[in-house]
């Protein structure tokens, strides 16, 4: 799930929050963020079962955790493009998985 919002109190940065990112495409997403003049401000692993358990590093066993990211950029167009690429990647993966299932 993606949630985008502009930082209205801060005139410098725009923000994009990404929740429950697939751990298999994190490396790809980090490369895309770097290529598009943006940066990951926060990466956290949040437990799906206990809302109080949040790590800022990858836990030993990542099962049962969702990965949340906060990406910032000076230009909102970069964030919109990152969101578009992520949505397209997810839809392509879902399409290919449905082709395998048929």
3D architecture notes:
The chain is 35% helix and 33% strand. It is of the alpha+beta class. Strand 1 and strand 2 (14-21) form a beta hairpin. It has a five-stranded antiparallel sheet with strand order 1-2-5-3-4, with helices on one face. The two termini are 26 Å apart. It has one domain (2-101). It contains two helices and five strands. The mean pLDDT is 87. It is flat, with a radius of gyration of 15 Å.
- Alpha carbon gyration radius: 15 Å
Gap from first CA to last CA: 26 Å
Q: What's the average pLDDT?
A: 87
The shape, in one word, is flat
Short description:
By secondary structure, the chain is an alpha+beta fold. The protein has helices at residues 26-35, 76-101, and strands at 2-6, 14-21, 38-47, 54-55, 65-73.
Descriptive key words:
5-stranded antiparallel sheet; 102 residues; alpha+beta; 33% strand; 35% helix
Outline the fold blueprint.
Blueprint: E1 2-6, E2 14-21, H1 26-35, E3 38-47, E4 54-55, E5 65-73, H2 76-101
Antiparallel strand pairs: 1-2, 2-5, 3-4, 3-5
């Amino acid at each position: 799930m993606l949630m985008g919002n502009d930082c209205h109190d801060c005139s410098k940065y725009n923000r994009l929050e990404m929740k429950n990112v697939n751990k298999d495409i994190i490396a790809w997403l980090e490369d895309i963020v770097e290529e598009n003049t943006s940066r990951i401000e926060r990466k956290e692993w949040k437990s799906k079962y206990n809302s109080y358990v949040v790590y800022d590093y990858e836990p030993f066993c990542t099962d049962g955790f969702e990965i949340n990211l906060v990406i910032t950029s000076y230009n909102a167009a970069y964030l919109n493009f990152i969101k578009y690429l992520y949505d397209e990647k997810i839809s392509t993966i879902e399409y290919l998985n449905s082709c395998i299932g048929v």
